[in-house]
Amino acid sequence: MRVVVGEDQMLTREGVVRLLQDAGIDVVGEAADATSVLRQVRALMPDVAILDIRMPPTHTDEGLVAADQIRRELPGTGVLVLSQYVESTYAMRLLSDHPGHSGYLLKERVFDVAVLIDALQRVADGETVIDPTVVARLLARRREPDPIAELTPRERETIGLVAEGLTNRAIASRLFVAERTVESHVQQIFDKLGLEDSPDRNRRVTAVLTYLRR
């Protein structure tokens, strides 16, 4: 896998690069600002770009803007956005605009190499990855009307794991149930949320968005 790392804090950037290289990942580029990240991604065509959400010059949402630009110009390139804080609004923005090949992790996760490599692989494969802490924060919000009021506790637990990007097999392992049971739960979720099968949309992503929105 080929990766470009965009992070303005030198020590953090070097730490991430070293972790990736030690894990056998080919880091083809490094950058300290969003403009340089975009330039390198366009030139080097990596599988995934890792972007700090807050980068120079304003340290607000430059990384997210760059991620949006990358996904629009190079839909086959994944983006993994990192944040020091739980910024659930930004996570929803990323997921809503580009549900595939996208991920959002808290920075504290990236130094667990297994978590980082798993997230990169899933993003490169076209999946969506959301940090479990962000999912929990979003699910704690009270909404009126509640679009998931009809879901059973187990169905809510299942869609929460879907929101983290887990496959049915991984969910079955986490819940200690058969994969066919998870498939049944997921289908019930689709039915209760009125999500019909369509080639124009990913029902798993639509279900997650319905579940996580305010």
Order of helices and strands: EHEHEHEHEHHEHHHHH
Rg over C-alpha atoms, rounded to the nearest angstrom: 17 Å
CATH fold title of the largest domain: Rossmann fold
Q: How many domains make up the coordinates?
A: 2
Supply the key terms.
214 residues; Rossmann fold; Arc Repressor Mutant, subunit A; 2 domains; six-stranded parallel beta sheet; 11 helices; 6 strands; 14% strand
Summed up, what is this model?
The protein is of the alpha/beta class and 214 residues long. Helix content is 53%, strand content 14%.
Structure description:
- With 214 residues, this protein is an alpha/beta fold.
- The chain folds into two domains: 129 residues, Response regulator (Rossmann fold), CATH 3.40.50.2300; 72 residues, Arc Repressor Mutant, subunit A.
- Helix content is 53%, strand content 14%.
- The chain is built from eleven helices and six strands.
- A six-stranded parallel beta sheet has the order 2-1-3-4-5-6, sandwiched between helices.
- Helix 8 packs across helix 10.
